[in-house]
């Protein structure tokens, strides 16, 4: 099965409600779809969002990176040589992790198709059903409480509460949500870099003293402020998770050695795809560090790839934040992984199992 061509599309799916974090507000998923064609007629599908505020990647940069730097290296390559292909992708250029991720996802999809097996089985197997949290956007307190209660009523047992806007209001936001859902859901906070280290310690100690139990706090301070991450990690009981601070395996090793966080959030759009996500999971496992697997605003193609990794690496990926498809008004993808609110189930279809993408705009 040899690669003959790489084509692109744009997928637009409106969100159920605007997605609001300390970094941005978005009302739709708008992602580049990558289709890797082969001489056997098989097509591998990949996807990448333009999360410029986190990865630096835009729609234009994703397409340009693939068209001019990645694709020329891959035409003619045989899918059975998976490691050679991922090495070609990763060494094609610096950064551009979303572009690399989209292509890697499509390549792994084809690898599963080549061996007629769902991807997670080739990655080591596991239980094909996992449970995700759902994001509660940062907003007025009453709105966040209502959104949290509604999520619990929809069956979500884990809520990812976005904070990081205003420290005083953030504390009140979390207290109000905790009072409303207390024993019915675990609360994860994500400040998306919105606090200083001292603010984070103050907020978390205030919440801890008030008896609010939190599962973890994600990326309390600026991505580059690893000293700040360590400062917070050393001073609060709540486990601290690194998200924007770590992209690839080397950064993960540095962060673990610094003891700058307790947990790592792996995202394919930060790692440059599946090969590095697996490396990070293995490194974390060696150090005895737990991981979350997360997503950006992505539809079910790239999130499905993350689901396959999560299932195969369940020994170390113990927390799931793969709510992209649940945030969308509809699922434009036929086939593959089934997203049913908090429950995500992988079918027996080969690779990622994508059969069709509706309303895809060719670019
Ligand atoms: C969608 C997911 N739950 C999430 O919150 N992901 C990111 C932010 C993604 C984005 O801005 O597109 C995160 O910070 O964890
Ligand atoms: Mg985050």
UniProtKB/TrEMBL annotation:
GO terms for biological process: peptide metabolic process. Mg(2+) binds at residues 190, 218, 243. It is an enzyme of class 5 (isomerase). Residues 141-239 form the Mandelate racemase/muconate lactonizing enzyme C-terminal domain. Signal peptide: none annotated. Its EC number is 5.1.1.-. Keywords: Isomerase, Magnesium, Metal-binding. It comes from the Bacteria. Its cofactor is Mg(2+). Substrate binds at residues 24, 135, 160, 295, 297, 321, 323. GO terms for molecular function: metal ion binding; racemase and epimerase activity, acting on amino acids and derivatives. The active site is at residues 162, 267. Binds 1 Mg(2+) ion per subunit. The keyword Cytoplasm does not apply. PANTHER family: O-SUCCINYLBENZOATE SYNTHASE, O-SUCCINYLBENZOATE SYNTHASE-RELATED. Belongs to the mandelate racemase/muconate lactonizing enzyme family. This is Dipeptide epimerase.
